[in-house]
Amino acid sequence: MVKYKDAELTTLCYIENEDSYLMLHRVKKEHDINKDKWIGLGGHFEKDESPDDCLKREVLEESGLSLSSYRMRGIVTFISGDGCTEYMHLYTAKVSTKIFSDCDEGCLEWIKKDKVYDLNLWEGDKIFFKLLADNEPFFSLKLEYDGHGKLLNAVLNGKDMELLDILNEDGSPSGQVSERNVAHMLGYLHQTVHMWIVKDNKILVQKRSKTKDSNPGCYDISSAGHISAGQTVLDAAIRELSEELGLLVDKKDLRHIGFTKRCIFKPFYGKFWPDNQISQVFVIEKDVDINSLKLQKSEVEEVSWMDLDELIKTVEEDASFPNCFNPEELKMLRQSLHS
Predict the structure, then answer these.
(1) CA–CA dist 68, 93 (Å, integer)
(2) Which residues of the chain have pLDDT under 70?
């Protein structure tokens, strides 16, 4: 085994045939960091091997397949959290046969690409499967785990990716952490915060930036956002208000009025994915000078005051009004203000 300082150099290859990947279920070795996981083919560099040399040797040893057409797609820095760090050279390769030999590392099986996410995968693997499917240019992906399989950090090309705590269908914590786009793509239940800024019977609404990944140019809640993994609800609310509007508030200014649970199909980067979320809803009764706000232009194009009753009527009756309000939540808001 060749090591660079304390890190291992490895290859990992996903072999394609038509609409399937050749996946390896690691069940034959007792002391295996990938025990019971489904992964691709690959292994550690031997002395003086290039990444391509290692790739072809490992695939031949594990499957009997000789590769002639392959492509390096990225470098994955895998930090297990229990002492193992790997620099994985990630490849895809195409073969014209579905015949393979037995593997002493586990059980090989052709899996339809749209069924891969149903397998027991490392959570970070779902990120690079999406990158592969999107034909992302060569990338560097850093994945850090806690030593027990829980994803702590993901960094793509030097930028932190947003991680979310995934919930069970009853709203309880599942213990799973997933990258935001993966969570949306797979319809995982997660949590968001919605903050309504209210003055008398008027509410502050924002118009979403035209560059937003979902509902661009639509009228929306005063401020809203995801609750990042490990973050409290109140801390997420205060963060979103500061980031989107430049508005600083105290926790005592936030009045919790309930929650909504909703699963709808929404466009994300031109694709329709299920947005499955529980939204914790807050009211902030505050006379805000909208001219003093510092809008996050990548998120918010403009803000304005709207009469709540008129807004509810417009949402219900005018199909041309561009918005992403939840009618149920608007009525919850009205009830809380009039009670």
Answers:
(1) 8
(2) 1-5, 267-270
